[in-house]
Amino acid sequence: MVNKLFHLICSDFKYCIMRNMMKFQVIFLLFFGMVACYDKDENYEYKPKTELSVILNGLKESYISLEDTLYIDPEIMVSNSEHELKYEWSIFMAYDKDKVPKVVPVTVIGEGKVLRYPVTEKPNSYTVMLRVVNKNTAQEVCAHVDIKVKNKLSEGFYVMKEVEGNSDLDLHFLDGEKLENLLYRKNGVRLAGAPNSCSVLLKYSYIDTATAAFVPTTALALATKEDFHIVDVADLGTIYSHKNMFYGEVPRGEESLFACFHLYGTSYFSDKGTYFCFYDLIWGDGGSGKFPVKTAINGGCKPNINICSDGSNVFFFDELNGRFLCIDANGELHDYPDQEDVTENGIRHSLLFLGNIGGKQMAILRDASDAEKLWLYELELVVEDPWWGGTMANPGNPITKISEISSEKLRKAECFCSNETSARILYFVMEGQVYAYDIDNETETRLTLDGLGDGEEIRFIRHRYWTGALDPKENFDCLVVGTQAGNNYKICMYDLIGGMTNGNVTRLFTGKGRAVGLQFVTLGFEVTSAVQGDYPVSY
């Protein structure tokens, strides 16, 4: 217990330092921009820039890779009439609080005053810099601007679906257009096995074999009954598959369930256990993206496919030992101690749902002896950090209340999801109808939703949202309902206010195959997006 508390203190101390370091980095970069380009002579004496200045104008916020040309005609002001200027343009991944120059090399893209550069970079955020040197005075000035590079794959709603027993992806764009069967288009084959889950790794790190550099990117983790792939959203190329994503021997006879993003890496879950790969893009430390040996814990574990997270720590139910477990921000696997009044270990009931709700967590379990009986577990998996402020994984028993569910409709529910942002509401489906269940008042309300036709089976419901402050045009907060009719899927999105909806369809996606879920991707993702509550921590 002492070791666990010490580890949690250290983990949270690092997180607290990280949060303050983001502020220090911004101050440092501002200071660096002011002092980095001073006059200098042969004796390396520095003085403020007074004779040479550069202004970059006319840039767009984003450019499309392999289509757009970056054109910049800078405004150069030189007070000394006798001058000979040297120009150097460069581009590199934008250095902000989650991307720093040392992660990837700097590329020189021009040596003339006017830049005309066909954009070929992969989708990401980049800094374009112009360095101007007055050869007569040795004065040097730098000017830079941040841009986004996009392509058709870097923004939109990804749908994982089953096609003839295997898995594929459709991408629905914000303008209503779509690309179908992307894995088949890319590789000529679909991913083997029916789908289990599609999760978004907001920031993932791997090594580019061509440059030997660490590459930060947004990736999709695709788990099926027979395989597991991590694919780069930039081009949907496979970074790793189950065959080569491990150090050492490849685990045999396991079924991949999902992968989860953490503040300092990624965890992988199968029905045999968990793995963790470490990287720290906040501090600029990339990683290979490969997974070492299985995470160890007394008694082993068998993860249930339902998980929840606070964006840093990931929580799940161990079916082998009947207990809730936590993988913290640094990849260590924790169990919880029993208390006299509440038993945390050896739970015999079957988990049906686990999710975030109203700043805390909840689980629904089916009684081990009576299949008609459901139990609602209210959990406090995350608590206030008494030492450093903010939050931390609960070091004590996370079960705060257990109650039998009295709602007849909820007891017959077929699928669930919770409101993660604005209300203590559980959404569920019963006999083709969607309901909102108020946890505190124990009341349910049938939702009247447009767009759902006769003969359509509701296959899944999700709470999906994106509230990133730097990406306001793409923000949304919606209840998602996915239906199936024959070989056709339909996904309707409904705006939420205070956890409820007026039932009007905000977005509608259709396609071929059996859809199992929907995930949103954008270039606006940051390492801290989930921790700050801007992006779902459910899968």
Automatic annotation (TrEMBL):
What organism is the protein native to?
Answer: Butyricimonas virosa
- What protein name applies here? Uncharacterized protein
**By its UniProt entry, which InterPro entries does this protein fall under?**
PKD-like
Pfam families the UniProt entry points to: PKD_2
